[in-house]
Amino acid sequence: MLRLPPFTYLAPRTVDDAAKALASHGGAAMLVAGGTDLYPNMKRRQFEPSVLVGLLAIRELRGVRGGAREGVTLGSCTTLSAVAVHPEIAAHYPALATAAGLVSSPQLRNMGTIGGNVCVDTRCNYYNQSYEWRKAVGFCMKRDGAICLVAPRSPRCWAVSSSDTAPVLWSLGARVRLRSAAGERTIPVETLFRDDGIEYLAKRPDEILTDILLPPADGWRSAYLKLRRRGSFDFPVLGVAVAVQMEGDVVRDARIVVGAVASQPRPAPAAAAALVGGRLTSELIARVAELAAGPAKPLDNTDFTHPYRKKMTRVFVARALASLAGLAPAGEPAAEVA
Amino acid sequence: MKARLSLTVNGETHDVLVPVHKTLLEVLREDLGLTGTKHGCELGECGTCTVLVDEVPVLSCLALPADLADAAITTVEGMAEGGRLHPLQQAFAELGAAQCGYCTPGILLTAQALLADRPSPTRQEIKEALAGNLCRCTGYTKILDAVELAALRVGVPR
Ligand SMILES: Cc1cc2nc3c(=O)[nH]c(=O)nc-3n(C[C@H](O)[C@H](O)[C@H](O)COP(=O)(O)OP(=O)(O)OC[C@H]3O[C@@H](n4cnc5c(N)ncnc54)[C@H](O)[C@@H]3O)c2cc1C
Ligand code: SF4
Ligand code: FES
Ligand code: FES
């Protein structure tokens, strides 16, 4: 048996109690929601917190409120399964329903939460391994070691942001609410992510992500495409989120955000700007896809070769835009896999 | 840290005193003697440890019993009723949908939850529902056939 390291488990019933528990245990405590990311990591001894503060007993963190007109609020402990089938989300924020429905496997989506998905640990071929494997190869700086095994002369870790929903939430203009014993703040989701494989979140460890706030749908259409080796289980090795706001058949505003190519989701503002004022023709789509693939610099530390992942960035941006333009069948799940 | 927990498994309530860091999989197998639930990867990557929590398939290798005090847990031992196999078990046996059998408990329970939700699923719906259960032996075809057969026999018209 591959067992968890021992810990003390607290299961508060309110966010206030959870915040107090975190504050009183300082750095020794970690948060856990569905545990589908944290428990495998703890079994591999990547984290050994002496106290775990579980969020599943907190009712106020579950469920979806509001509607497309005024904006939708998702409690951070809403399961990915619930997000994927929620009628308002599926109808008006379809990229989010798609992304949530493509995370790992059905069982993991029944357990994993949207908040945990936003905060999911970064990944690397040299990190997501058992303790014995990492010891044999030599530890790296993300855990237990001093150097990066992918880029040995690099002073930083390049582990990859591998959340399916993070690039989508960014492209939708979502905000997140964070609460701690010291107070509460609401920030744009893009400011939550840092370009560092180890310190990948710009939030203090004592801050609890309580809600995700989607703006009114307001004419925005969205799509998400995911590249992975198998049609189930696998994390994205490329995720493309596009959102366009249409006025008639002219693009009024657009956002393109690419996941799993860096330690944080990567926006492609130049490509998005090239869409504005134009019609979604195949010529414009081809030009924008070229521009969007420019900034993507995947490293050789996930599945598939990195030149292939870069090439697929262009292909997936073009496919996602074509589906929004009605130029191609809006990707069946099978088409969203390689 | 040990916790005194009351777990409802297959309709029976069990009081256990276990370390809180033991997973549901470990408690089922080691403390309750319910070894029908199999341990594979223990990292969420195979689905063989699937059990139902309030009729929903979850991975027991990543679930903490401390979170499940108010839940109804179903394991493969809870499928047969009064010595009679569940229609899914019967169909799996007849069609040879189990070879080594290691993935079978998890697949049976996942399929049971599917049929409770959709009594007459399409082949595609069966495939999607079972997308989190790996089988190294059968090639899946007979598993899909068996779920279809069981659905027909339970026979709720479409
Ligand atoms: C086999 C396998 C395949 C997977 N495939 C995918 C995939 O394809 N795509 C994908 O995106 N993910 C994947 N995952 C990762 C994981 O299942 C999901 O990201 C899931 O949504 C994580 O949610 P959780 O509630 O289980 O998080 P947890 O494991 O509970 O937490 C994850 C991290 O977030 C922190 N956290 C959780 N909730 C909060 C909160 N409310 N406030 C502050 N911090 C919080 C925790 O402290 C922890 O550091 C996979 C996991 C496995 C085991
Ligand atoms: S990018 Fe380098 S430091 Fe980071 S996990 Fe991979 S090998 Fe380790
Ligand atoms: S043993 Fe739980 S998923 Fe493999
Ligand atoms: S029958 Fe052997 S793993 Fe499925």
Calculate the mean pLDDT score of chain A and round it. Answer: 95
CATH architecture of the largest domain in chain A: 2-Layer Sandwich
Strand order of the largest sheet of chain A: 4-5-8-6-7
Q: For the terminal residues of chain B, how far apart are their CA atoms?
A: 51 Å
Q: What is the overall number of helices of chain B?
A: 5
Helix content of chain A: 25-40%
Tell me the series of helices and strands of chain B, N- to C-terminal.
EEHEEEHHHH
Oligomer state of the chains in this structure: heterodimer
Helix content of chain B: 25-40%
Largest interface in this structure: A-B, 31 and 29 residues
Small molecules (ligands, ions, cofactors) in the structure:
flavin-adenine dinucleotide, iron/sulfur cluster, FE2/S2 (inorganic) cluster
Beta content of chain A: 15-25%
What is the fourth-level CATH superfamily of the largest domain in chain B? Beta-grasp domain
pLDDT < 50 runs, ≥5 residues of chain A: 330-338
**What is the radius of gyration of chain A computed over CA atoms, rounded to a whole number of angstroms?**
20 Å
> Number of helical runs of chain A?
13
The mean pLDDT of chain B is: 96
Report on the biggest sheet of chain A: 5 strands, antiparallel
